Amino acid sequence: MELRDLGVLSGPVLLFGGPYSNLLALRALIEEARNVGIPAERMICTGDLVAYCAQASETVSEIRRLGCPVVAGNCEKQLANHAMNCGCGFEKDTQCDVLSGAWYAHADRAIGAADRRWMAGLPDMITFQHAGRRCAVVHGGISDISRFLWSVSPEAEIQKEIDLIQSVAGPFDMVIGGHSGIPFQRDIGDVTWVNAGAIGMPAHDGRTETRFGTLDLSGVAFHDLIYDHSAAKDAMQAAGLSQGYDAALMTGYWPSEEVLPPALRRAAVTKG
């Protein structure tokens, strides 16, 4: 396991995940950070730079120019290893598995050798200290990089990941994760688990805005990211990525709910 320690960070920290090849969303986020005076060294990405949307190589190039800390996501690991799928662990022939085939193949064609070498060097965990807290950043989990953890996951599942992280790198006050794409914050014993959300795809809540987080003296706050989602959809369709995630940018709902716990599926959310 590759660890990178950022030392002590002073000032607000911007937390984000899942750019998902959505270049317009990433550029909007960078502009948000500039507007509030957060430099690249205090912008931390939980991985999956490349996924559903159209501009994979451009998104990676933008992140590399920015120079912010990035944890390796499963998509980066798979592309670095020239793997044939995204590594999310979807069951064969499920809708998620079928849909992932199209966007992963598109990304695989777009990402060149230099970017794959860069992805291979990304850390599996980032650590830092902030306002007296010790924080760890992972993608999905330590037991599985593609571990889906949700706001409604059993406490024992999240505790297992916390225990594994602490066995690797010592005690932490906060863990910041990604992968599942929907932001949440939960206190598990003495540790706060935060999912920073994803900037490249809506949070399956009927809104076109995506999400990111900030960490300051008072803790974590989540924010909406407004960007040109219509232009991002047009780019996907021009690239032949019209299997459902293009529509998700406009409707705010994912094309498949197979991976979601029942409590987070559309019927439950709209009823609530």
UniProtKB/TrEMBL annotation:
Family statement: Belongs to the metallophosphoesterase superfamily. YfcE family.
Pfam families: Metallophos_2 (PF12850)
Organism classification: Bacteria, Pseudomonadati, Pseudomonadota, Alphaproteobacteria, Rhodobacterales
Domain spans labelled Calcineurin-like phosphoesterase: 26-208
PANTHER family: BLL5683 PROTEIN, METALLOPHOSPHOESTERASE
Domain of life, source organism: Bacteria
InterPro entries named among the record's database cross-references: Ap4A_hydrolase (IPR050126), Calcineurin-like_PHP_lpxH (IPR024654), Metallo-depent_PP-like (IPR029052)
Gene Ontology CC terms: cytoplasm
GO molecular function: phosphatase activity
Name used for this protein in its record: Calcineurin-like phosphoesterase superfamily domain-containing protein
